[in-house]
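Protein modeling request. Please complete all fields; requests missing the sequence field cannot be processed.
Requester role: graduate student
Desired output: 3D structure, token encoding
Chains: 1
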Amino acid sequence: MQELEPTWGRTLSVWWLIFWRGFLGAALLGAVIGGIFGFVAGMLGMPIQTIGNISGILGGVIGLLWAILVVRMALRKQYSGFRIALIAR
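Delivered output (89 residues):
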């Protein structure tokens, strides 16, 4: 296996995948799950302040889990001319 230098082009390819999938996924998941939670909590009569507090925590947890999945996607992807490999020492 040939080891390649981490050029700026390769670095930007990996960064772009992590950035756009992280941003898009977080926005979509946040909108869907936040909307569902807000609707259900509102129907149950939960105070708006409490809904806001719980939504922030819920969004943070979901964002963290999504970020881990995005990094895994980046590690498994076949990029143009290279892929990321984890090699034991």
